[in-house]
Every structure is written in C-alpha cells, then in structure tokens.
TrEMBL record:
Residues 152-296 form the Aspartate/ornithine carbamoyltransferase Asp/Orn-binding domain. It comes from Sphingomonas gellani. It catalyses: carbamoyl phosphate + L-aspartate = N-carbamoyl-L-aspartate + phosphate + H(+). This is Aspartate carbamoyltransferase. Residues 2-144 form the Aspartate/ornithine carbamoyltransferase carbamoyl-P binding domain. Pathway: Pyrimidine metabolism; UMP biosynthesis via de novo pathway; (S)-dihydroorotate from bicarbonate: step 2/3. GO terms for cellular component: cytosol.
Length: 308
C-alpha cells in the first residue's frame, strides 16, 4: 500500500494532483452537492496518541462525508495507558481489518513504524517534530485559491521552526511548488543547516516580512521546549509577534496560522480576526484535503485506477 507519511518523497505533480482533487471537494462541500459515498463499506480508524481538535475532527468529517465507517481511538482512554507498545497497538488495529488508518503521535517516525506493520494505507496526522503532510496540503490549497498560484509567492514562516512539523511539511510542499520561502525564528529555535531546505533564514522578523505575499505564523510550543529557550510572552510578541503595526507594512499579504493560536503571543487578535486572515479558510480546506487524500489512497482497495 502507498501511505501518506510525509510531503518528503512526493513529486511536485503528485502534490498538485492532490490539490486538484481537493478542489473538487471544496465546491461539493459548499454547494451540498449530492453526497458521493465512494468510501462506503470501508472502515477508517483515527488513532490519536496526542491531542487534536482540527485534524481529528476534519478527518472524521471527511471520512463520514465519503461514506466510510469512522471510529476514533483516543490514546488516553486506550490500552496504551496500560503500557501496550506502539507495534502491538498497530497489530491490534490491523487485525480489526481497518481499510485506512489515520495516526497522530508525539514521536517523530512513529507513524512510519505503524505503516510498516499494517496492511492498509496510513495517513500521518502529525508525528513529533517530523511532518504534518495534510496541514501543508491544506495550506498550499488555501494559498493557491487566494493567490491563483503557489509558484513565485513569497511566503514567510515565522516562529518555532525547530520544533514544528507544520513548518517542515510546509517548507517541503511550498518549495516543491516553487514558492519563495523565508523562515524566521530566534536563533535557538532555527533548525541547523536550514538553507539545505532551499529557504532563506532570518532572525529579524521586520526584515523577513519585507515584500511578503503570505505570512504564516507558528504556535509557540511550550510543551516541546525540553528545558531550552522559553521566551516570555511579552518578549516574544515584541520580536516575533504578528501585530497590527507589523502587518501594516504588508497590507496585501495573506495571514495564516495552523492553530491552535496563542492570541497576544505569536499573533494579535486584531490580526487573527482581521480582513487579511485566511485562518478559518484553512480549516475549511482541511476537510476537502483530507477527503482527497483518503479517496486517493483507498482507490486501489476499491479497485479504482489512481495514484496509489
Ligand atoms: N493544526 C492542527 O494540527 O491543529 P490540531 O492540533 O487541533 O489538530
């Protein structure tokens, strides 16, 4: 089976294909077109070992819109709490004859480990610092719809780039689609050798934001700091926050944030709720993108010609 464990390994034409497929579902969801239950009879298991609002619910809604039987496994209420290993959990889910598995885990690489052990397609819903591929796809779709194209857009990704799977997947997707990607972070939260990912690094947000078409803010992830640098909220906002004053320098730029937001830290409320914000549109695109990914990945199981 083909999985979606990351953007890494996808060809630019495959990314564009998934966006084109998602586009179809955006319109269908908006117009309440006749339901297309192409996943009817398939069982989708969402196994989330880490908290989520957007990703879990949109995968669940996406599966239900396509007619799948969707069940959720919340790790906090599962036998993981009794010490069951990841591999044993994967084999248990596999034995239930799931047709598609959606996994979120706090450890980088955990989703690939599960993908190697099961007999169905696996979608990564976020693993540690590694990747969050459907987030990058929904972000690319949002940019493409608002700007007409991803190619040539100057996208500034600002915040805790080091710990961010959202940043990593977005860098891979946006550079593959020929965007001009800048990353901005305090030096302690910038991955080493980031230039090798074909982006331009900045530590000064005011310089980075110059000429931006899209400003993508990242959440300050206090739970991932591991005793490292934790800036005070006030200090962080002053140097790296998207305030109305900063945004005034790029009045045509699109504002994005994957959520959940720390309002008043990395982004001010007036900006998050302002006219330049595409944050709720990102959430809307999330359902369409997840419908597209699950449809495409289960085509072979359904005997339909396709990508996988
Ligand atoms: N953007 C995102 O992954 O949000 P959740 O953690 O709420 O799923």
């Amino acid at each position: 089976h083909r999985h979606l464990t990351g953007i890494e390994g996808l060809q630019p034409h495959e990314i564009s294909f998934l966006l084109d497929e998602a586009e179809h579902w955006v319109e269908a969801n908006r117009t309440h077109a006749a339901p297309d239950k192409r996943m009817a009879g398939l069982t989708q298991i969402n196994a989330f070992f880490e908290n989520s609002t957007r990703t879990l619910l949109s995968f669940e809604i996406a599966g239900k819109r396509l007619g799948a039987d969707v069940v959720n496994m919340h790790a906090a209420q599962s036998s993981v709490k009794k010490g069951e290993t990841l591999i044993d959990t994967a084999q248990t889910l596999n034995a239930m004859r799931a047709d598609v598995l959606v996994i979120r885990h706090m450890s980088s690489g955990a989703v690939q480990l599960i993908a190697d052990k099961v007999a169905c397609p696996v979608l990564n819903a976020g693993d540690g610092w590694h990747e969050h591929p459907t987030q990058a796809l929904l972000d690319a779709l949002t940019i493409r719809r608002r700007r007409g194209s991803v190619a040539g857009q100057r996208v500034v990704i600002c915040g805790d780039v080091l710990h961010s799977r959202v940043a990593r997947s977005n860098i891979l997707a946006l550079t593959a689609l020929a965007a001009d990607v800048r990353v901005c972070a305090p030096s302690t939260l910038m991955p080493p050798a980031i230039e090798r990912m074909f982006v331009t690094p900045f530590t000064d947000f005011d310089q980075a934001i110059e000429g931006a078409d899209v400003v993508m803010m990242l959440r300050v992830q206090n739970e991932r700091m591991d005793g490292g640098y934790i800036p005070s909220s006030r200090e962080y906002r002053m140097r790296y926050g998207l305030t109305a004053e900063r945004l005034a320098r790029v009045p045509n730029a699109l504002v994005m944030h994957p959520g959940p937001m720390n309002r008043g830290v990395e982004i001010d409320s007036v900006v998050a709720d302002g006219t330049q914000s595409a944050i709720t549109e990102q959430v809307e695109m999330g359902v369409a993108v997840r419908m597209a990914c699950m449809d495409v990945l289960t085509r072979r199981a359904r005997g339909v010609e396709g990508w996988a």
